[in-house]
Amino acid sequence: MKIRKMAAFLCCLLYSFALQAAPGDPISLETMIIDVPTAETFDRYQASFLTRAYDHGTIMESVDFGVFPRINIGVSVAAHELLGSSDDVRVLDPDFQAKWKIFDGNLYLPAIAIGYDGRRYGYGYDEHRIYTDSKDYLDDRKGGYITLSREIIFPGLNATAGLNLSDWEKLYWFTGMYYTWADKVSLLAEWDNIRNVRDSRLNIGARFYLHPSLALDAAVRRIGRGDESERILQIRYVTNF
User: How far is CA 51 from CA 57, 115, 158, 205, 215, in A?
Assistant: First the structure.
């Protein structure tokens, strides 16, 4: 029942935007799989509004802008326990993200981008990964990263791999792929935060294109991690400014 309430909330939140989106404003490119960044960027003068609903009634809003060709910058902010009946709603510290596509790719080489992602997930967990009255996060920020992407094997199947330096201290790597069918739905899979099996995260999901400028994602994160596993919904609206 809770996941249905999240879906209804997100659809109502951006429904008015969808009605105003012009057919000539398609979603630019797949800049993220779920948590894994691809080498793609939004076009110049495009703005992306991404709303994610996830564990413990948290809502995160991320806004990204194509400020220069191949360069995106953005900011994110989350409200913890916003959904539900809790009286302890907390607005978390804002996070910053940026990406620069440094190579478009060719017949033999993948596209390459470098960036920074300050978003963190799983607020309120302690050092033993138990949800409690804590200001720590279950998932650290991705930090600085380099990512490589290209289409592989057959049309519509795209793969991404890269390295990230979480909090400028520990080096991790990530990989993922997605397959888009008939411009209506994409199947998503990724293995993120890979340093050892315990720290890594396996995520799968699907992306539904509701409108040329509007997409809805449904995914499961941290598969096989017991109480740490979570279902998420996120909706993205892209327009020009």
Answer: 13, 21, 24, 16, 11
Percent of the chain scored above 70 by pLDDT? 88
* pLDDT band, very low/low/confident/very high, at 196 (cuts 50, 70, 90): confident
Average pLDDT over residues 80-105: 93
- Report the C-alpha gap between 168 and 171 in whole angstroms: 8
Could you tell me which of 178, 241, 184 has the C-alpha nearest to residue 212? 184
Asked if pLDDT for residue 198 goes beyond 60, the answer is yes
* Burial class, 166, CB count within 10 angstroms (exposed 0-12 / middle 13-18 / buried 19+): buried
- 2 CB-contact burial (10 Å; exposed 0-12 / middle 13-18 / buried 19+): exposed
Give 225's DSSP letter: -
In contact, 169 and 14? CB cutoff 8 Å: no
Topology of domain 2-240 in CATH is Porin (2.40.160)
Model pTM? 0.86
